Amino acid sequence: LTQDGADNRASLGQSGSENRGEVRQSARYGTASLTQAGTGNNATVEQTARRATASVAQSGSENTARVEQSGRSTQAEVTQNGDENRAVVTQSALANRASVYQGVLGY
User: Fold this and answer.
1) Helices in the chain by DSSP H: which ranges?
2) Measured CA angle at 46 (ends 25, 37), to 5 deg
3) How far does Cα 53 stand from its chain's mean position?
4) Residue-wise pLDDT tens for the chain (107 aa)?
5) Closest Cα to residue 53, out of 36, 37, 34?
6) What is the spatial distance between Cα 47 and Cα 58, in angstroms, rounded to a whole number?
7) How many whole angstroms separate alpha carbon 52 and alpha carbon 69?
8) pTM of the model
9) Distance CA 48, CA 38 (A)
């Protein structure tokens, strides 16, 4: 977890083994949440613009998610259930929203 700006918030919850979560916030008012359950999941959130919001939830094994937010007031949500899902969200303009849902419901 790296925070190089003011008024940023980040949370990381992990259960299982060999999960990796990384949050880098270099602007102001960023919010990031990572939740990982399972084995070998990898999640990265990088926020370089003000008022960026990101949420990543992974349940299963070997899932990978990357969120890059360089546009102001962006929102991204990634939910991965199951195994070996891959997602990349890049937001570089003002006020973008993205939602990604992968895997099996009820996993």
Assistant:
1) none
2) 105
3) 9
4) 888 888 999 999 999 999 999 999 999 999 999 999 999 999 999 999 999 999 999 999 999 999 999 999 999 999 999 999 999 999 999 999 999 999 976 55
5) 34
6) 19
7) 7
8) 0.93
9) 29
